[in-house]
Fold this protein.
Amino acid sequence: MNREDVTVLGLGQMGTALADALLAAGHNTTVWNRTPAKAGPLVARGATLAATPGEAVSAAGLVLVCVLDYDAVRALLEPVTGSLAGRTVVNLTSGSPEQARETAAWAAGHGFGYLDGAIMSTPPGVGSPASMFLYSGSPAAFAVHRETLAALGEPVDLGEDPGVAALYDVALLGVMWATLSGWLHATALAGADGVAATAFTPVAVRWLTGAVTGFMGAYAEQVDAGHYPGDDATLDVHRAAIGHLVHAGRDRGIDGRLPELSQALIERAVVGGNGSDSYARLVELFRKG
């Protein structure tokens, strides 16, 4: 395995987890943080503490940045652009696709490689191959550093457009929040009749990982084609079924705003003449805003 020298700038919870995973994989790891004391445990495990960002950048060909936002990234790197020439920066700071593209263009103007990344894990999951790290930007940079990046989690290459990783990040967070909110509503509903969340959840997980993911795969093809045959279940069927959910919640005093949102979307589609289409037809309502 290639033991690449790596620098990590920013030692919040996530940055610390990144550095720790690199150390565990045997990489020579230099770290820098505005508050040097945060680096103490990492130094005890073998990291080198740099006194300045310039010193940190000069220590490695691969520089990972994980700070508050893109403004902080630019403020941190702007004074050391001369030292970054010929190196690769992997920005693991959360932001928008537009910010990622602007930063990539700025990096190209200063002669250093750039990958934008999204960490699809909380800090405890960093270092596990089950965790997914999304990257977009320079294909050459990804190819050169892929093995090192694998120490953090499974590296997924989303292509040359540097904004795509951030786009996937926000989109997938939307999936997560919608799923968790739906599950919490369901546990409240079931709990009103005395069903423990720990009893309900294994059945919910089986439903999600089996049937629901199957729906998503089939509906993705419909979304891309713009054609929504209701071969499995029509919106008319969904309209009737979601009515049962809304009424069950009301009977139990459960806040119904979440299912009522889906109910309203289904109603709009049916009233618009699309009752015989599949649930995937609702994407058109989202597209129209």
User: Anything to note?
Assistant: Residues 237 and 275 are 8 Å apart (CA to CA). The longest helix spans residues 197-225. The two ends are 49 Å apart (CA to CA).
